[in-house]
Amino acid sequence: MNKEGQRASTGRDPVDDRELVESARKGDRDAFRTLFERYHRRAYALAFGVLRHQDDALDVVQDAFIKAHKYLDKFEGNSSFYTWLYRIVMNLAIDHLRKHRRVRPVELDEAHLDDSSGDELLPKMLGGNPGRALLDKEIRARIDQALGELSENHRAVLVMRELEGMSYEEMAQAMGCSKGTIMSRLFHARKNMQKRLADLLDRVAVNDETEDAAASGSRA
Amino acid sequence: MSLRFWLATSIVLALAQPAFAGDADCNYIEIAATKSDKAAMDPELKPLEKKLKKAPFSAWNTFKKLSAGTVSLTKNKQESIRLKHGSASLMLRDRTEKRVELTITKDDEKGKRVLEAKPALKVADYLIVGGPGGSDDAGHMLALTCK
Amino acid sequence: MKEHDSDLMALADGELDERAAREVEERIARDQTSRRKLEGVGEISELVRGHLELTSDAVPRKKFDALWREIDKSLDRETEPVKTRAPGFLRRVGRWFDHHRSHIITGAVSAGAVAALALVLRNPSDGAIATKHGPLDTTPVVHRPTEIESLDTPGGTGTVFNLEDEDGSTTVIWVTPEDSVEGI
Predict the structure, then answer these.
(1) Where do the domains of chain C lie?
(2) Smallest Cα–Cα separation from A162: which of C42, C45, C54?
(3) How far apart are CA A37 and CA A12, in angstroms?
(4) Theoretical Cys-Cys bridge with A64: which of A9, A89, A148, C66, CB 3.0 to 4.6 Å?
């Protein structure tokens, strides 16, 4: 779980992006289009992760690219273009949540979470390979449902962390809160996801017993 | 009509001739996917490397080419592909300059049909057909691209 | 949130300095439960990230093409006021047109005739595909992902994914035998 490695995988050669940004600043629409082609899906995944609504996420992506173009002069090149862009996306997504709530917000105060089963992380649930679980439609539907049931703040930090590998400090800045609050939200977001997927444990228990039996047989 | 007009017309006609003869050449790669202590990617899988690092293939970290080849397809003629594990067949149903319409079948090692599909794919795009591999947690895939 | 578990989470997220990370790793080496909790964090990460990536890849290309068109129009509107501010520009264009009217009309008619001829002589199946699958998209970059016209997976379940990257589309058909559950 290397956040730098994860960050590196989200963007292209930063020098390449800087050249495109430079051209776009001078009015080269094709250069800006290339930046759009490179990053629109990632930006969408981020917005959708937070907003959970396709049209809202598309609106945010549209606004983000328009805003990015408008403020290209302010992009100093200290971070990659995508890092700069995703901050715009996150700000717009969080603003959108505040302005256009589709559902009454779930209690956002961490002290009142529906976390009655203690304050510990759960152990690894799936006996097999988590990536392979994504091939199962039922499991994907459950993940989707579980994400939808998280509070907006919990979902936002989970998406920022898991999709973009943002540090606690970066997330704190993006959400305008303390690092401690971010850690608490992230902890509870993960815990709540684990709880909501926990009934998969029943199927896992059978496989774990089989694996243990096979392992002791091979040791004999 | 001026001479210039007819010259322009003849140029347009020459460019309008299709660049293909109604056949298709399809490259295929059979891939074994496993999870090991150390990640490895067969150098011959380079064109697919970016795709194989994304979900759902992120389930594995070691990818090995089992077999590969090119199949030349003519319309409505089925061509068989012998794989290391099982077999497949391809048939060209139709094509345009940019898209090919195929019928693809895949059989397992016991000769049991596991898939029959009719995809219409864009030239140079990939189609990957896969399923669990022979051993626990392994994956077995057939990647296909046509031109 | 127990302090021990918050350390595990911070370790998984690469937030601990070298010394703190080493201490936690030593603790994990002695404690199976902590190790499995650490793996649990990694597991949720992989599930959430993979799910979100696949969800975004499932959005059809044409939606993003339409998105770009809106962005493009918006950017044009931003620059429009600058272009039309040039004094007398329209008048200059009008005067130029008046001067070259006959040449312009001849050129336009010839170009239109050639274009019409090119359309008529185009491969008819291109048009058939375009109309069969919806209106023709005239944007410069057009990608229609693979379409699966039929899919049969005897004795199993077929799941179709569409992956997009800078090199184009990849369609995945994953067949899961009926007697297995992926990931377990």
Answers:
(1) 1-83, 89-136, 141-184
(2) C45
(3) 12
(4) A89
CA A7 vs. chain centroid, Å, equals 12
Ranges of H-type helices in A26-150: 29-51, 54-70, 81-99, 130-133, 137-149
Domains of chain A: 1-102 (1.10.1740.10), 112-213 (1.10.10.10)
Instruction: Provide the sign of the torsion angle of the four alpha carbons C96, C99, C105, C110, taken in this order.
Output: negative
CA-wise closest residue to B87 among B51, B115, B52, B121: B115
Could you give the 3-state DSSP secondary structure of residue B53? coil
Express each pLDDT in C46-83 by its tens digit. Answer: 889 889 888 888 888 889 999 999 999 999 987 765 55
Q: Which of A48, A69, A135 sits opposite C159 (nearest CB)?
A: A135
Name, in order, each residue with C-beta under 8 angstroms of A101's C-beta and a sequence gap of 6 or more.
none
Q: What are phi and psi of B113, to 5 degrees?
A: -70, 125
Q: What angle do CA C47, C48, C54 make, to 5 degrees?
A: 90
Non-local CB neighbours of C66 within 8 Å, separated by 6+ positions? none
Q: How confident is the model at residue C1 (pLDDT cuts 50, 70, 90)?
A: low
> Which residues in chain C have Cβ-Cβ distances shorter than 8 Å to B113?
154
d(CA A63, CA A44): 11
Q: Take residue C23 and report the two structure tokens written for it.
A: 């201490």
* Mode of pairing for the β-strands spanning B87-95 and B78-82: antiparallel
Return the DSSP state at A125: -
CB of C62 within 8 Å of a chain B CB? The answer is no
Do the beta carbons of residue A163 and residue C64 sit within 8 Å?
Answer: no
Q: What is the pLDDT of residues B46-105, one digit of tens each?
A: 889 988 988 788 888 899 999 999 999 999 999 999 999 999 999 999 998 889 999 999
Question: What tokens does C116 get?
Answer: 């019409």
Residues in chain A within 8 Å Cβ distance of C37: 120-124
Pairs across A and B, CB distance < 8 A: 22
Bond before B56 cis per omega within 30 degrees: yes
